[in-house]
Amino acid sequence: MTFEVFLCSGIWNVPYVSTIYMIRSDVLKSGQVPSFEVQGIADLDVVWAKSLRDKGTFMYVSNVHHYGHLVNPDSYDTSLIRPEYYQLADNRLEWEYRYIHEDFEAMKDPDTVIQQPCPDVYWFPLVTPAFCNDTIAIMEHFGQWSNGANNDKRLPGGYENVPTRDIHMKQVGLERQWMLFLKDYIRLIQEKVFTGYFHNPPVSLMNFVVRYRPDEQPALRPHHDASTYTINIALNNPHVDYEGGGCRFVRQNCSITNTRAGWTLMHPGRLTHFHEGLPVTSGTRYIMISFVDP
Ligand SMILES: O=C(O)CCC(=O)C(=O)O
Ligand SMILES: [Fe+2]
Hints:
With 294 residues, the protein is an alpha+beta fold.
């Protein structure tokens, strides 16, 4: 019972209390006065609580403060460079507090209009700066960026038509968590903006972080994504971390160059939104991409 008291605020009818009590005076006057005299039990609180129970007098514990909650340390792996990042399934409250953008909750509200910088390209706050920084740190620590070639052993078909310099979530043990993220966060906004499309849980075989650099891969030529819809999360900022960059939708003749770290684009994949990654002219641009429902 004490366990639950610390979890939340409220009032509970309990079989035993100790240390501090408040007693209604009419109980004392009514002859229901508890007894401290039970043979063989030394602890006064235990004796007293038993006597109250025997007389049918209820005891309550009340709590108006939030003292915190229990964390689950079972899967916390200190050998990882960002152990917290891997905790969505096991410690969701901490994870959301650390990684979900404070304005994301409002995006789910049917009355909140989601920005559309280009036709059918939605743009909204999703994750925190800590998420962006930890994602980049995990990927740079792993360090095995693809070489940008068409042949790619990580893919089921072994071939990528429009390759990027990237690391897949699968390579750093984050594929399963990412599926949960798509289902519990991304899907909710998808169902709101692309009305009448339902696919639960979302499926995605390609979830990866892309690195653009002038001397490595500065840009990405126009292509369609192998997805029903794509999410493209900015992990860092133009004019701070790099110059140039952004995403251009060719048919719509519309570019988004003022992307913001922690905000994601969500756009249709394989037919209407032919798009390209614009050249990064200095610095490094990082984005996180998912091709949802291929
Ligand atoms: O650079 C961008 O924002 C576009 C990235 C992209 O289209 C892709 O990775 O498929
Ligand atoms: Fe793309």
